[in-house]
């Protein structure tokens, strides 16, 4: 059961080598797709990749966006007969046995198009909520107290597990979106094709949601604080 993982880089900070090593130790092979454009950053990212035995570096010296990076990994997985694809961003920290537990969850959900974990936002220090159907409505809900895999409307791409065969039927990621809404669009497409999108509440990973901070008014707000180019 071959598993390929891809980590998308863009000017990574912190101990990215440790984060990637944790991922690489749990999969057959790892692709580091580098969207960085500064020569000194690219050089350092190549060095990091060279220290990981089962990692392959790919970069063009340009920022091609997340969609292009994910689609590169999809093509690589299809061409080299990987059964599953795991997608990550550079800030995600996974626990031990993460991949084996995700694979186990998949065995219990033959109708799954994708499965993801619970995300703990390290900036706001709280669990992220997922969009779920509630009668005719869609609400955002925390799921950590639920038992068994949970049906949701969409999940973010980092830490998610896909069966490679799914891309033949539903197509690849929407690269024109560049950064945002790629995950939402793909999950909705899976639903349109009759597949389900699941979260396993027993699996939790730490995730950095783009400098999100917690602001207290009458209610708790957590703006994403995205730079201007992600809002247009």
From TrEMBL:
<protein>
    <submittedName>
        <fullName>dTDP-rhamnosyl transferase</fullName>
    </submittedName>
</protein>
<dbReference type="Pfam" id="PF00535">
    <property type="entry name" value="Glycos_transf_2"/>
</dbReference>
<dbReference type="InterPro" id="IPR029044">
    <property type="entry name" value="Nucleotide-diphossugar_trans"/>
</dbReference>
<feature type="domain" description="Glycosyltransferase 2-like">
    <location>
        <begin position="6"/>
        <end position="170"/>
    </location>
</feature>
<comment type="similarity">
    <text>Belongs to the glycosyltransferase 2 family.</text>
</comment>
<dbReference type="GO" id="GO:0016757">
    <property type="term" value="F:glycosyltransferase activity"/>
</dbReference>
<keyword id="KW-0328">Glycosyltransferase</keyword>
<dbReference type="InterPro" id="IPR001173">
    <property type="entry name" value="Glyco_trans_2-like"/>
</dbReference>
<keyword id="KW-0808">Transferase</keyword>
